[in-house]
């Protein structure tokens, strides 16, 4: 039996830490829930925190959140697909946008549903994922302001998501200036500069966040307390709101070197032999999870004496060396998780989700 465990008290601690921090800075924020892949018991824990705004990249997840708390503000955090327009108007109060044609369709659907749909226009600031090019911002906004049933509540950006470009004071000041230019040009108020994510938190902690940035969208730091600038953790935050556990299904002493003619395995990998390992033996352990659920590089064993060897579709192999901790069949091996590992596990129907 493999399972992910969410520690409720640690989640509450990190939420309060971030909420207090943002209140001190006069910043509004919402919780990004896409990590949970619509797992209702985990979404309920988010709602129980008293969260008033949630962000997700799957409309079905926002629908579940609306069912759990109808008055919560839901934000769809990627450019909408044409076929999702109707559902986005139904279940997302706000969406992040980069294309005029898409916003026009949102406007038409919002009119049909007799709703006012709020949008944040994303600006390209160098990471080369989604975003309107800076030179086109004013002209882009000129078109949007003419559309009915659409209210522009902010402009924003995403950094570090594609090419690893880090946020800086200069980039965020530049984004804040676009807001002022638009407000002066069109005589419209733009409430939010939504440029804050986990990667921007170190600027807040170092008191380097430009005053114009007043909205954050935070997921990863809530669950891991990451400081992405230092590749470490934020002092005072819990680093393991989520952990993974998998059961031992085999332990056998085996050679370190495979025997026979070697070819690529089903993952396209070719085993490299270390000549010094010929004749050596080690205890090999198999746990009941595989590539269908997780990639080994995203798992961090809590027991530092063990080493991940590799995985096939449904099994993961661990080197226990001399098995100093005397693992047995049926024992559970515990792992800390990296973000992408947790995302895979949460998306697997074969891994149980538990709240403690």
UniProtKB/TrEMBL annotation:
Please give the SUPFAM superfamilies that the UniProt record associates with this protein.
PLP-binding barrel (SSF51419)
Which UniProt keywords are listed? Answer: Isomerase, Pyridoxal phosphate
Recall the taxonomic lineage recorded for the source organism.
Bacteria, Pseudomonadati, Bacteroidota, Cytophagia, Cytophagales
Its name, as the record gives it, is: Putative amino acid racemase
Matching entries from InterPro entries are given as:
Ala_racemase, Ala_racemase_N, PLP-binding_barrel
Record bears the keyword Signal: no
Listed GO CC annotations: cytosol
User: Does the record bear Lipid metabolism in its keywords?
Assistant: no
Q: Which cofactor does it need?
A: pyridoxal 5'-phosphate
Provide the Alanine racemase N-terminal domain boundaries: 9-225
Instruction: Tell me one GO molecular function of this protein.
Output: pyridoxal phosphate binding
* Organism per entry: Bernardetia litoralis (strain ATCC 23117 / DSM 6794 / NBRC 15988 / NCIMB 1366 / Fx l1 / Sio-4)
């Amino acid at each position: 039996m493999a399972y992910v465990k969410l520690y409720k008290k640690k989640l509450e601690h990190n939420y309060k830490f971030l909420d207090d921090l943002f209140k001190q800075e006069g910043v509004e924020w919402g919780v990004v829930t896409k990590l949970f892949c619509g797992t209702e018991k985990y979404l309920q824990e988010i709602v129980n925190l008293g969260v008033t705004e949630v962000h997700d990249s799957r409309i079905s997840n926002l629908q579940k959140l609306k069912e759990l708390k109808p008055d919560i503000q839901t934000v769809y955090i990627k450019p909408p697909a044409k076929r999702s327009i109707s559902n986005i108007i139904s279940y997302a109060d706000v969406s992040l946008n980069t294309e005029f044609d898409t916003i026009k369709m949102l406007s038409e659907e919002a009119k049909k549903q007799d709703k006012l749909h709020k949008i944040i226009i994303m600006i390209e600031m160098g990471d080369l994922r989604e975003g309107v090019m800076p030179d086109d911002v004013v002209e882009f906004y000129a078109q949007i302001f003419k559309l009915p049933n659409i209210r522009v509540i902010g402009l924003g950006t995403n950094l570090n998501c594609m090419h690893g470009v880090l946020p800086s004071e200069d980039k965020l000041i530049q984004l804040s200036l676009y807001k002022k230019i638009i407000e002066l040009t069109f005589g419209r108020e733009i409430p939010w500069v939504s440029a804050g994510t986990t990667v921007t938190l170190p600027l807040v902690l170092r008191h380097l966040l430009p005053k114009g940035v007043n909205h954050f969208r935070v997921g990863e730091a809530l669950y891991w307390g990451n400081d992405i600038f230092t590749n470490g953790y934020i002092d005072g935050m819990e680093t393991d709101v989520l952990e993974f556990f998998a059961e031992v299904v085999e332990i056998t002493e085996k050679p370190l070197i495979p025997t026979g003619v070697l070819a690529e395995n089903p993952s396209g990998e070719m085993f490299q032999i270390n000549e010094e390992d010929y004749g050596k033996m080690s205890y090999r352990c198999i746990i009941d999870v595989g590539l269908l659920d997780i990639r080994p590089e995203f798992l961090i064993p809590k027991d530092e004496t063990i080493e991940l060897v590799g995985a096939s579709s449904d099994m993961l192999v661990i080197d226990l060396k001399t098995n100093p901790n005397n693992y047995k069949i049926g024992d559970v091996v515990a792992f800390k998780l990296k973000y992408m590992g947790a995302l895979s596990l949460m998306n697997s129907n074969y891994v149980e989700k538990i709240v403690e």
